[in-house]
Specification:
The complex is a heterodimer of chains A (444) and B (381).
Chain A: E1 15-18, E2 24-26, E3 61-63, E4 85-88, H1 92-102, E5 110-113, E6 120-121, H2 136-139, E7 140-142, H3 144-151, E8 154-156, E9 161-165, E10 170-173, E11 176-179, E12 182-185, E13 190-191, H4 208-218, E14 224-228, H5 232-243, E15 247-251, H6 264-276, E16 280-282, E17 287-292, E18 298-302, E19 307-310, E20 312-315, E21 319-320, H7 324-328, E22 337-338, E23 351-353, E24 358-360, E25 363-364, H8 369-383, E26 397-399, E27 406-409, E28 418-424, E29 427-434, E30 437-443
Parallel strand pairs in A: 4-5, 4-12, 5-8, 12-23, 14-15, 14-20, 15-16, 22-24
Antiparallel strand pairs in A: 1-2, 1-3, 6-7, 9-10, 10-11, 13-21, 17-18, 18-19, 24-25, 26-27, 27-30, 28-29, 29-30
Helix pairs in contact in A: 1-8
Chain B: H1 2-12, H2 20-44, H3 49-58, H4 72-85, H5 87-106, H6 109-112, H7 114-121, E1 126-128, H8 131-137, E2 146-150, E3 153-163, E4 171-179, E5 185-194, E6 199-202, E7 215-224, E8 229-231, H9 235-266, H10 268-275, H11 282-299, H12 308-336, H13 338-341, H14 346-359, H15 364-375
Parallel strand pairs in B: 1-4, 2-4
Antiparallel strand pairs in B: 2-3, 3-7, 4-5, 5-8, 6-7
Helix pairs in contact in B: 2-3, 2-4, 4-5, 4-9, 4-11, 5-9, 9-11, 9-12, 9-14, 11-12, 12-14, 12-15
Classes of the chains: A alpha/beta (444), B alpha+beta (381).
Chain lengths: 444, 381
């Protein structure tokens, strides 16, 4: 029984939520068990009334506002919970494997587990998008939901893989336990922050979500930005930020940017090009700590005892592969998930890995070029199709600084001398030789 | 003086200072004997303080404390052994264990002396009222107890809907939000709440585990002085003991799963010819139980490891004990058939115990939400 519409002029009947047990007192319904008649306003209930379920008093109730139902991720209507391929990660690696499997097999169940939304974007664009005035909407190529529908797979967005039982072929996630026939690890690497860099005070740009949030902060107008780390990502971001109109300080551990990849002559050219864009380079400097200054700036404490203030701090201090999941499951790990260089199988034959999270012979390879070839090998392996195997070769590396683009063929060998083979005002070519053979070549 | 010391140490070595094997053997004798016999009555409402006293005497309720060697693995194994006979008693052991943990880790001489010795020896009993604040810290619900600073301490008011292992002369660890001028909570305090100065209100009936002495707890201007203070502020303290608090709970789920496995084995000879068609067969459950037990024992070596990865490992293991207990209990009833469905049978009781394991704070859903939160990268706001 419930009261008809109220006539007391106090508006519609309201509901009140017990904060302890979740019972809802509805003024229209009253509380028959306690002798509260239908149509009794909450305010008119005696103060000694208690929650009929858990016994807390009136003061532990609060007005109940109906919540919007939790937004559900768009999921393709197809896949039932059959055992099949489970892919962890919805970056370029994860989606490439799904695409490669689907190009041969329309039916095998595929589930993609990702801690993000699973939206598809082209990661290398993240470090050059600000200067081109690109918005997050422009960078998005396809939503995760649309890609899942197109490929007929089940996408579990905002879901973290937390545990793995290889013997039982089960992946534990924050939305349930998934049995699999084959598992593909494509969860990438994570920014590695040096001690002293408070993650709440510095951005890292390694995925679309982080970039979009940084974009929103930078959209407020020109800012003073400090980029910590002068590797490839740091140099590209510094230039991109400068082109977008921000005041940039680039902080590097060595005297010149990109010390691992560039000999001094090329490093000096790159530095001149960056400085030509108005970027201030602070070399031979480490950041010891970050603190929020009273005015809202972030103060960077530098190792020479001085300090620097910036409105926005971005750390580009390298990546590391998360190891908790795979090491707890007993998979071989060596600076990345160790995989067979031909089959890309991990130390468990039914678990594959590719992309930023793997290491080949102890070497991570965090470039985009090999990913499509790796995905194909894995898809063939899962479907039992013959394949000549993955052949790793050092990809061509390009530094996307428009002020001075640089290209490497063959990974530079640390400590090996560089010879100039061509030098003019706007072009520098250098090589590293071992026993007369060119092992690495760069053109700036 | 020396004879008093000798007497004391002789007394202690009869309790939680005994070797692991001796403690486990003592617990097993209680579990397989009087506890197994009483499990049905405990499920229906009998509060087994006598058996808790025996478990304390066996040394089962203090092995995890620093003063007895911080043997968390042993405390969990003891809880598992009791829980295979009676999940409700396993839960009471957890309540009692964490209460002792609060007292010892408080470093408050008024709580770490005779009071803690009585607690460990089972001369006094107390539980924990942290379900609400744990959920409040995770942003799941508002904190229900409010404290106001007064000279010499705080005055606390509010109502907690269900708190277990409490009663006349008993106590529990509790947390209240300190309200300053206005309604904002500045921080929280954690204190030992003496039930004799609070109002215990009967709870509605639960579907099982009624012998856990679970009450609604109402405080009205309850005074907390320095002698009962566990931590002020409470959050850093909770951060330090959180993994240990959750890890200890694993003993319950492991025990319910182990008891269920025993019930499956018990009918294998007679019903194996049809049971072979069921899911989650004893071999599978036994394998998973052994793996999970091993992982929990590994984690129990470093209960105060502060790393995020460690905490995720603990939450994952705790979630898995829930999952395994649910599946094992379900399968055990199916294996036993009608005899498992009898009102007096252990398999149907364990179904409800396994549900309790999965919903008691932290419930599976809370654990998953927290693992997702901890896995997210922190970024500037």
């Amino acid at each position: 029984m419930s009261a008809s519409e109220p006539t007391d002029g106090l508006g519609p009947w309201r509901q009140f939520l017990c904060r302890a047990c979740g019972l809802i007192y509805d003024e229209a319904e009253g509380d028959a068990d306690s002798g509260i008649a239908p149509g009794t306003r909450f305010a008119d209930i005696p103060d000694d009334w208690v929650c009929p379920v858990c016994g807390v008093t009136k003061t532990d109730f609060e007005p109940y506002r109906r919540r919007a139902p939790a937004a559900l991720t768009e999921v393709a209507p197809v896949p039932p919970r059959r055992r099949g391929v489970v892919i962890v990660g919805a970056g370029i690696g994860g989606w490439s494997v799904a695409e490669a499997i689907r190009s041969w097999d329309a039916d095998i169940p595929i589930t993609v587990v990702t801690s993000c939304a699973g939206d598809i974007y082209h990661k290398p664009e993240l470090s050059v998008a600000l200067g081109r005035g690109l918005s997050p909407e422009k960078l998005l190529r396809e939503t995760g939901g649309a890609a899942a529908a197109r490929l007929g797979l089940r996408l579990m967005a905002d879901t973290v893989a937390v545990g793995l039982a290889p013997e039982r072929r089960r992946l534990r996630t924050t939305r349930g336990i998934l049995p699999y026939t084959h598992l593909v690890l494509a969860h990438g690497a994570r920014p590695a922050l040096p001690l002293g860099l408070d993650p709440a005070l510095c951005w890292r740009v390694n995925d679309f979500t982080a970039w979009a949030a940084l974009h929103a902060e930078l959209a407020r107008g020109p800012r003073r930005v400090a980029v910590v780390g002068a590797g490839m990502v740091g140099c590209e971001l510094a230039e991109d930020l400068a082109r977008a109109g921000h005041g940039v300080t680039l902080i590097g551990a060595a005297g010149l940017p990109l010390p691992e990849l560039l000999p001094e002559a090329a490093g000096r050219r790159l530095l001149a090009a960056l400085e030509g864009l108005g970027i201030a380079y602070r070399g031979q400097t480490l950041v010891r700590g970050l603190t929020r200054a009273p005015g809202g700036d972030v103060a960077l404490a530098l190792d020479d005892g001085s300090s620097l203030a910036a409105q926005t701090v971005i750390a580009a201090t390298g990546l590391a592969t998360p190891s908790r999941l795979v090491q707890a499951a007993g998979l071989a790990f060596d600076r990345g998930i160790a995989v067979d260089p031909q089959t890309l199988r991990t130390s468990r034959a039914d678990i594959f890995a590719l992309g930023d999270c793997i290491s080949l012979g102890g070497q991570p390879c965090r470039f985009i070029e090999p990913v499509a070839r790796q995905a194909e090998v894995i898809a063939y392996g899962i479907l039992g199709r013959p394949h000549e195997g993955y052949a790793h070769s050092a990809p061509v590396i390009r530094l996307k600084t428009r002020s001075l683009p640089i290209e490497w063929h063959g990974l530079p060998a640390p400590g090996l001398a560089w010879d100039v083979v061509e030098e003019s005002g706007d072009r520098l070519a250098m090589v590293q030789r071992r026993a007369g053979e060119v092992v690495s070549r760069l053109v700036a | 003086m020396s004879s008093a010391l000798a007497l004391r140490s002789a007394h202690d070595s009869a309790g939680p200072d005994r070797p692991d094997a001796a403690i486990l053997a003592g617990v097993a004798a209680i579990a397989d004997g009087p506890l197994a016999a009483a499990a049905g009555a405990i499920d229906q409402g009998s509060y087994p303080l006598d058996l808790m006293g025996q478990l304390a005497e066996a040394g089962a309720l203090g092995a995890h404390l620093d003063r007895h060697g911080a043997r968390f693995g042993l405390a969990i194994a003891a809880m598992q052994t009791a829980s295979r006979a009676c999940g409700a008693t396993g839960f009471l052991m957890w309540c009692h264990d964490v209460c002792g943990l609060y007292m010892e880790q408080s470093g408050n001489p008024a709580l770490t002396g005779a009071a803690l010795a009585d607690h460990v020896a089972g001369r006094s009993f107390g539980g924990t009222a942290l379900s609400n604040p744990m959920k409040a810290f995770a942003g799941i619900e508002p904190i229900l107890l409010r404290a106001t600073p007064v000279p010499g301490g705080y005055r606390v008011s509010g109502m907690l809907p269900w708190v277990s292992h409490i009663g006349e002369g008993q106590y529990c660890g509790a947390i209240a939000g300190v309200v300053s001028a206005g309604e904002t909570i500045t921080h929280e305090i954690m204190f030992l709440l003496r039930c004799d100065r609070a109002e215990l209100r009967p709870c509605p009936h639960f579907s099982g585990m009624e012998g856990t002495s679970t009450w609604g707890l109402r405080l009205d201007d309850y005074f907390v002085g320095p002698d009962d203070m566990i931590a002020d502020p409470a959050r850093p303290f909770i951060g330090r003991i959180r993994a240990a608090f959750i890890l200890l709970q694993c003993g319950m789920g492991l025990g319910v799963a182990e008891g269920s496995l025993g019930a499956m084995h018990a009918v294998e000879e007679t019903l194996g010819h049809v049971n072979q068609f069921l899911d989650d067969r004893p071999d599978e459950i036994a394998g998973e139980l052994a793996d999970l037990h091993g992982r929990v024992m590994q984690l129990a070596r470093t209960p105060y490891d502060g790393a995020t990865d460690y905490l995720i490992d603990v939450l994952d293991a705790r979630a898995q004990t829930s999952d395994l207990a649910l599946r094992a209990a379900q399968s055990s009833l199916l294996h036993q058939g009608a005899r498992g469905y009898l009102k007096s049978s252990a398999p149907q009781r364990r179904i409800r115990e396994s549900h309790f394991v999965a919903i008691v704070t932290p419930a599976i859903k809370h654990l998953r939400k927290e693992m997702a939160r901890l896995s997210r990268e922190v970024m500037p706001a």
